[in-house]
Amino acid sequence: MMNARVILNKLIELTGFKAVLLVIGIGGLSSLAFPPTYCIPILLFTFPLLLLRIDQATSWKKAFAQGYWFGFGLHTVGLSWLVNAILIRAQDFWWLVPIVSPLCAILLAFWTGLVGALYYWIRPSGWRKIFVFAGLWTLCDMSRAILLSPSWWNPVLTGFPWNPLGSAWEIPGYVGDILIQPAAWVGVDGLTLFTVLLVLLPIYGRKGWVSLIVAMICWVGAGWVRLSPAPVAQQDTPIVALIQGNIAEDDKINNTDPRRIFQNYLSLTKEGMQKALQLQKQQVIPNRPVLFAWPESSFPGDIAYDSVARTVLMQQAKGAAAGILGAITRDEQGHIHNSLVVLKPEDGAIIAQYDKAKLVPFGESQPWYIPFHIVPGSPLTPGKGVETIPLAGVSSFGPLICYEVIFSGQVIDSSHRPKWLLNLTNDAWYGNSAGPRQHLAAVRLRAVEEGIPIVRVANTGISAVFDPYGREMVRIGWGIRADKAVALPGSLSGTLFSHVGRWIPFIISMIYVLFGIIFPNYKKRMLPTTEA
């Protein structure tokens, strides 16, 4: 124990280049808490060390630097899977391969640096330290979805709230089911707040560890109590056939053989509909509607003008109340959209269309001063925002395309609450890496927050369906050409988070921060002040 304390003091007192490497390193280690590794215990070492180093900083600039380099390491490693997107077009962007995730981290690390600077200015003491730090971390983390939004200073960037710490609890299986239930009250930002608070408790020795154990028992107990049977489906609750075509991104980009791609989806749709119709016969509620869904940008052509393909598709999908496809569309003004279209069963006519509103920064949209486009056909034009699509004889659904699902509290039209959510995506860009798993974690958390079942259909995987408690009902793994059918459960009438949204974690975090501001104590310091 004494040796560990000596080592800790030496790490806290490191200066210069070694200190920078240390903080980058512990930031990188912290990313192991994210899916798919879920190494949450590593945070019990990295976050206390970060706080102690910031606590000993002798200026706000040094405190900012501690937080900044930590965030740089956190996001560089956490987003390392981005290299897969560049490798798809390596012949054009080979020079981006070694720097793509560090470039993103340079921007994202500003928010963790801000945590350090604000903490220094408040200078809390005693037990206030961890509350102030947790509150600041959560507020700055939440701002990643706000300060980069098109409604604020930049009409291009749409925010990047990827990998909030709260997503670390999205462990596959029953354990994760229990641990993510508090998201129904406080959202993933609330999970982030409590995560930071918990992992900092060991700073206070035995009392801190006891408090940590008690808090975890309460957390698990609350999650276990909340889990209940999924709501009963209604007559209009659909059975959905998930169609995962597993088309290589190179084939999609080059459009080398659109006929083969269409035939691939056509045969899968026929098989998927047969399974869905068979499942329909097994339901207690007779004649539930049946739908099928293709992934994001899966239709290999101009769907608006290819009436023959639409008609052939719906003939093969006999018995479907509607077909839902991802497609690239062009409006009357010539603007290109990443769209979800709904096809009529009789003749394949387009009866509804949703255009992706939140575009991926530097991929689907980017500033005018960047002279290249990583995603062919970009920049795209954003749609109007979240909406609910009503269908005759089928419960209404909320469409989400790819990246839009990561925005906590921004996935449904609250004035017209949908009965289920549909997320079409194409994670083929990111390869068989952590990226699709981290994306899937966001999908699962949205189901818990909103109390709505969610269907995710991905081109190369991972396709899945979660009930309103975030329990996995069906999955198609990565890199598999397959189809599966699932009978959706009903939705909850609502959750606390669905009614109040991100105001809950925001208010709690503000209370924590104000607690440190209103009741400061400059005399008591955790450790002797040293040069940071």
Can you describe this structure in just a few lines?
This protein is 43% helix and 13% strand. It is of the alpha/beta class. The relative contact order is 0.14.
Describe this structure in words.
It is a single chain. The longest helix has 24 residues, at 258-281. The strands form two sheets. A six-stranded mixed sheet has the order 5-4-3-2-1-12, covered by helices on one side. Strands 6-7-8-9-10-11 form a six-stranded mixed sheet, with helices on one face. Helix 1 crosses helix 3 (43-55). It is built from 17 helices and twelve strands. The relative contact order is 0.14. It starts with a helix and ends in a 14-residue tail after the last helix. With 532 residues, it is α/β, with parallel strands linked by helices. It has helices at residues 2-13, 16-30, 43-55, 60-78, 83-88, 90-93, 100-122, 128-142, 174-179, 183-200, 205-226, 249-254, 258-281, 307-316, 434-450, 496-500, 503-518, and strands at residues 239-244, 290-293, 322-330, 336-343, 350-355, 389-391, 394-401, 420-425, 454-458, 463-466, 472-476, 482-487.
Topology:
Elements: H1 2-13, H2 16-30, H3 43-55, H4 60-78, H5 83-88, H6 90-93, H7 100-122, H8 128-142, H9 174-179, H10 183-200, H11 205-226, E1 239-244, H12 249-254, H13 258-281, E2 290-293, H14 307-316, E3 322-330, E4 336-343, E5 350-355, E6 389-391, E7 394-401, E8 420-425, H15 434-450, E9 454-458, E10 463-466, E11 472-476, E12 482-487, H16 496-500, H17 503-518
Parallel strand pairs: 1-2, 2-3, 7-8, 8-9
Antiparallel strand pairs: 1-12, 3-4, 4-5, 6-7, 9-10, 10-11
Helix pairs in contact: 1-3, 2-3, 2-4, 3-4, 3-10, 4-7, 7-8, 8-10, 8-17, 10-15, 10-17
